[in-house]
Design goal:
With 74 residues, the chain is mainly alpha-helical. It contains 1 helix and no strands.
Length: 74
Amino acid sequence: MDLKKVEEQMANLETQLTFQEDTIESLNQLVTEQTHQMTEMQRQIRWLGKRLKQMQEQNTTDSDPANEPPPPHY
């Protein structure tokens, strides 16, 4: 192998390495962002679940029509 060919291969490898490093960094940022989004969504789902449970519990205690106030037209 001559020196020029080795230098070309080395430059090609350096270019590929730089591209791979950029790709890895981009993917890492994306994964970090998606992790934050998923954490926020999980928090919201837990809150919605608690709220739904509260509403269901409230509905079961208020489900007796005798306990309801009369409509406004009475």
